[in-house]
C-alpha cells in the first residue's frame, strides 16, 4: 500500500501518533479504538505494508513500532513540497515589499 493511502485513514494516523510515544502491543493499540480487534489488525497490516510500522513477535504478542525509513520517505516528500513553495513565497514577499516601497 502507498504511504499516503495508508495515512489517509484517520484511525491509521492515530495509530502512528500512539506509536510515536513508543512500541505497543497490538492488543494495547486495539483498546485505544472503538474498533474490533480484526479491524485494528487490518489497519496495522496496511501500515506495515506501507513501510510505516514494523512488528516484532514476542510469544503470543505482536509488538508494533514506527519504521523510521518509511517516515523518512514521508519527510523527504514534504521537504520537496516545502522547497517548491518556500522559494515562491520568498519571491512573492520580495515583490510585495518592492511594490509597497
From TrEMBL:
Gene3D superfamilies, sorted: Winged helix-like DNA-binding domain superfamily/Winged helix DNA-binding domain
Domain HTH arsR-type: 1-101
Any one GO MF annotation of this record: DNA-binding transcription factor activity
SUPFAM superfamilies: Winged helix' DNA-binding domain
Signal sequence annotation: none
Keyword set includes DNA-binding: yes
PROSITE patterns listed in its UniProt record: HTH_ARSR_2
UniProt keyword terms in alphabetical order: DNA-binding, Transcription, Transcription regulation
Pfam families to which the protein is assigned, alphabetical: HTH_5 (PF01022)
PANTHER family found in the cross-reference section: TRANSCRIPTIONAL REGULATOR, ARSR FAMILY (PTHR33154), TRANSCRIPTIONAL REPRESSOR SDPR (PTHR33154:SF33)
Protein name: ArsR family transcriptional regulator
